[in-house]
Structures are given as structure tokens and as C-alpha cells.
Amino acid sequence: DAIGMSGLLVKSTVIMKENLEEMNSRGLAERWPVLLGGAALTRSFVENDLSELYEGEVRYAKDAFEGLRLMDAIMGAKRGEVQPVDAEAEAKRAERKARRERSLRIAEARKAKQTEEDPQPVPARSDVATDVAVPTPPFWDTRVVKGVPVAEYSALLDERATFLGQWGLKGTRGDGGPSYEELVETEGRPRLRYWMDELTTKGILQHAAVVYGYFPCVAEGDDLVVLDAPSPDAGERCRFTFPRQPRDRRLCLADFYRPRERAEAEGVVDVVPFQLVTMGDPIADFANELFEKNAYRDYLEVHGLGVQLTEALAEYWHRRVRSELRWSSGAAVSDEDPDDITEFFKLGYRGARFSLGYGACPELEDRAKIVDLLQPDRIGVKLSEEFQLHPEQSTDAIVTHHPQAKYFNT
Ligand code: B12
User: Fold this and answer.
1) Residues 148, 45 share a domain
2) In a shared domain, residues 185 and 262
3) Name one Pfam family in it (predicted).
4) What is the dihedral of CA 256, 260, 265, 270, to 10 degrees?
5) How far is the CA of 63 from the centre of ligand 1 (A)?
6) What is the pLDDT of residues 180-211, one digit of tens each?
7) What is the greatest pairwise CA distance in the chain?
8) Which residues sit with their C-beta closer than 6 Å to ligand 1?
9) What is the pLDDT of residues 7-49, one digit of tens each?
10) Which residues contact 271 (CB under 8 A, 6 or more apart)?
């Protein structure tokens, strides 16, 4: 009746475009309306760019509920029912279109003005401090840790992201229905306790594993250079080139590591920790079993919980890394950690953890270098040709101890 495509990764939006072109060329567009959704898409991209390209109807769904409403409308139309015109939705669409056209015009005018005027000299690098002390790691190279205790990493579960983002617990405001806080007490926490018990009893959460390591490094312009040994004159092991913001602070991820000149002057290089965590296959297998049994609510909850536990494991290991990095006084980087866990999710600690594919370091291809450094096949994790880790509930990261490091887009 209709074709649905979901895009979690930016790469998948390119494939969607190709699919729509292919459907045009095979003359299928007339027959098949297309519904698109997923984190990598925006309404504007679908309603403007893709709908111009596709010869049939293509619509965006922000969530599963909008998807259902669209399907109802499509099926109604197929049955020959006259569809009531949703005047409000039509007006909103027209307004979005006008807004987009206006901002494109403004951007073009600004660009034209810029090329007319003398180009402003842009600073070569950001204002990020280069005189930051370097903590000492407990070892150079990598370690494998299998069977991380559930109680330890699950303590860093982001409840809000689980309940609101994954389980869709949305309270009502003002019209007498339960608030989000009430739903957390009556549904969220009881279901969470139930699943944690169930998954622990079944032994599903015992497969959490980590491979991590500390590597000597220096920054060279926009590059993070990983060295063979902790000395400024050591050979180069590999190099990551990160994009720099074209305006604003002109930040680049490489700015959060000690520049080569400074390392040479002081005779001390920086340290870059890399980490890769996985929940293993069992949680995804269990979620898929529930899906096969048509137990959708259970599936949604288990999948969502698995996803957030992966994040919790990454957060937990990052804390471990901070506790292992020591200053010459013997104090640990983690001594600056906030007491309140919710502050963790706002990066309230010293340093930051950057995952490839996010704004500051968008190149997924660079994951191959992390895999080369960490050898995650030792914990059963493989990188696919599309640069995705399998099992799916896995994530990798580049860590920096720099106190000014916060997330940014380029
Ligand atoms: C949780 C999460 C994870 C989890 C789990 C991912 C998973 N596969 O389930 C973990 C921690 C494992 C993870 C890892 C990674 N992630 Co991640 N992740 C997210 C996050 C925060 C939420 C995704 C999610 O579960 N949403 C909840 C679900 C229910 O919502 P949803 O997927 O959007 O789907 C709903 C709607 O969109 C809609 N919908 C979706 N599809 C369709 C289709 C149709 C037809 C319809 C009608 C509706 C519809 O309905 C759904 C239900 O309402 C997103 C950012 C975000 N805010 O979405 C990043 C995000 C997807 N991740 C991203 C990245 C980069 C990664 C990593 C590569 C990072 C890394 N270097 O390790 C890895 C890759 C994993 C791997 N195996 O290699 C990027 C991808 C962007 C890109 N560059 O392509 C995102 C977009 C973050 C970002 N802003 O950059 N990730």
C-alpha cells in the first residue's frame, strides 16, 4: 500500500534519495506513496528537497503516531474515501515552505555581500587554551574488560532519555491527565525495575564489554596525530583530520589536544584515550524475539532500554578513564566530577567524549582507525562496510581531558 523508509544515519538519507530516483525510473512513483522518518531526516529535507524529486507522494513522519495518521489517510484515499482537508496542517506546510524560501534568499544575499566586501581575515585556530597540564595514564596501549557488573553501569542510566525519548512517556499539561513526573512514578520506574530484574535474571545484561586504551598524541593544525611512543620525536601511528568551524569560535576537535610545538618545547606529549563499549548480542536478540511475538510494547521498552544502557556503559567507562588519569599530585581527573548524576549528561565533568558521526567529528570512515587502534574483535565487535559496529548496541569514542571541551557543531 505504501513504502516506508527509516533513516537513523545521515548516510541513509543519501540511499533514500537514490531509492526515490530508482522508483521514478521504474515508473513506480504513481503507485507507491512513500513515508519517511528517522533521526537523520528533517521535515524540511523531505517536504522540500525530496518531494520535488519524487514523482509520487512523499511525506515525513516525525514519530510513529504521525506515521499512523498518514497511513490512515493514504488507506482512506485508496478506498475512495474523500479525505477531509486538514487546513491547519496545510497552512503550517505553506508557512514552513515560505520560511525556508525566505531563509535561502537571506543566505544568498549575505553570501553575495560577503564576496563583494573585503574578506575578513579569519583566525587560523580557536581561542582554546594550549597551556593545559597533561595527566598520566596508568598504561599506554589497550586493555579488554569483559562482564562489566550491571549494577555499576546501570547506575548511570539516563532515566529521562529512556522514559521520554525511548518509551514515549509524555505527560499532559493542564487538562487533568497525568504529568510526566506522575507517569515516571506510576509507569516509568516500575517498568524499569521490572525489566532490569527480568534481563538480569535471564543473564542478558552480563555481556557488557569494553576495549579501551591510552595513546600518546599531539595536535597539528586540524589534525590529531597519534604517536608510536610518549615522546615528541616519536613516529606517527595514525592521524585524524577534523573539520574546523568556518565562523564563530572556529573550534576544531584537534584544539583540545596539546599542539606539537608546545609538546616539543616542554618535552611532554598529550594523552588521548579511546574507548569502545558493547552490550553484546543478547539484548538485541531478546528484543527481536519480542518483536517476532508481536509483543510491541515489550519490544519498544527492551530495545529502548538496551539503547540507553549502551549510552550508560559508555558514560560509565568514560568515568573510569577520568579516574585512571592522574595528575602529578596523585589526584584523579574524576575528582572534579559532579555529585549529581544528571550533571553527567550535561557534561558537568572535566573533558568530553566525542563519538565519530557527531557534529565535531562527522566522518564515520574514521571509525576504521579506532578499530585499528583498539582491535574490538577481542570483545566480539566488528565494523561493517558502512562503518557500523556490530552488535548494534555498541559505540566508540575519542576522549579529551581538556577542561574547555564541550560539544559543538562544525
Ligand atoms: C540512542 C542512540 C544511539 C544508541 C542506539 C542506536 C540504535 N541503533 O538503536 C547507541 C548508543 C548504540 C548509538 C550508537 C551510535 N550512534 Co547514535 N543515536 C542515538 C540517538 C540519541 C537516539 C536514537 C533513538 O533511538 N531514538 C528513539 C527512536 C524511538 O526514535 P527514532 O529512531 O527517531 O524513530 C522515531 C521517529 O523518527 C519515527 N520514524 C523513524 N523511522 C521512521 C520511518 C517511517 C516510515 C515512519 C513513518 C516513522 C519513522 O518513528 C520512530 C518512533 O516514533 C540519535 C539522535 C536522536 N536524537 O535521534 C543518535 C544518532 C542516530 N546516532 C548517531 C551516531 C553518529 C552514532 C554512532 C555512529 C556513534 C559512534 N561513533 O559510536 C553509533 C553507531 C552505532 C553502531 N552500532 O555503529 C547519529 C547519526 C548521524 C550520522 N552521522 O549519520 C545520531 C543522529 C546523533 C546525531 N545527532 O548525530 N546511538
Assistant:
1) no
2) yes
3) Met_synt_B12
4) 50
5) 13
6) 889 999 999 999 999 999 999 999 999 999 99
7) 78
8) 4, 6, 8-11, 35-40, 61, 63-64, 67, 165-166, 307, 310-311, 355-358, 362, 388-389, 392-396
9) 888 778 888 999 999 999 999 998 999 999 998 888 888 888 8
10) 134, 135, 136, 137, 214, 215, 216, 217, 230, 325, 401
